[in-house]
Amino acid sequence: MPRKPNYRFERSQRERTKAAKKAEKAKAKAERSEKARDQKDDVAQSEDSEPIVS
Q1: In whole angstroms, what is the distance from residue 24 CA to residue 30 CA?
Q2: pLDDT digit of tens for each residue in the chain (54 aa)?
Q3: According to the model, what pLDDT value does residue 47 have?
């Protein structure tokens, strides 16, 4: 005998997995942007610290 569908529970499970996936993507994006920002800052600092030779 087939089980009775529980649509509300199934929908909440789908929404929960979507939210977790979205949060994981946002975290990865934030880490990538932070890493890029750090690299950009390192390049800017190395350019500033070099003496200007005329």
Answers
A1: 10
A2: 899 999 999 999 999 999 999 999 999 999 999 998 888 877 777 666 655 565
A3: 64
Length of the chain as a residue count: 54
| Through-space distance between the first and last CA atoms of the chain, rounded to whole angstroms | 88
d(CA 27, CA 25): 5
Sign of the CA dihedral with 20 first, then 23, 25, and 27 last:
negative
How far apart are alpha carbons 32 and 9 in whole angstroms?
35
- 3-class secondary-structure state, position 53: coil
